[in-house]
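Tutorial, part two.
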Amino acid sequence: EAFQPKSGEAAAAAQGKKVYEIVCGICHGPDGNGKPGQAPPLAGSEWVVTKGINRLVHIPLTGVSSTIVVEGKEWNLNMAAMGAALSDTDLAAVLTYIRTSWGNKAGEVTADDVKKVRAEIGKSLQPMNGEQLMKLPE
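Running the prediction step on this input gives:
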């Protein structure tokens, strides 16, 4: 199965997992549980399991600076805009992977969703803090 070509939804899931392991998993862990003092959990995170995807897409596109609260715990960190260099398709795949892994049950993020948020952000890729992110529509 690992060596068979995938298509459709299976291909997108495989691509999302691959990008996650290369770009995100180093800090957030292969299981999405985060790493103390380094990166918050994505498994069960209120930033991941949401109706809307706007805030979630902003995070990898702009990065995070200063304090963000995840599952009631403050994280004072700096995260580079790790997703800014990814294509809309790859960023959508990794965000969908995050929203559907480790018990997370949230909807798909499409390349069009990412493209829309990227256009709204424009060239201003200044990192955002938790308070700024919370002011954005979900």
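Strands lie at 64-70, 73-79. In part three we will examine how such features are distributed along the chain.
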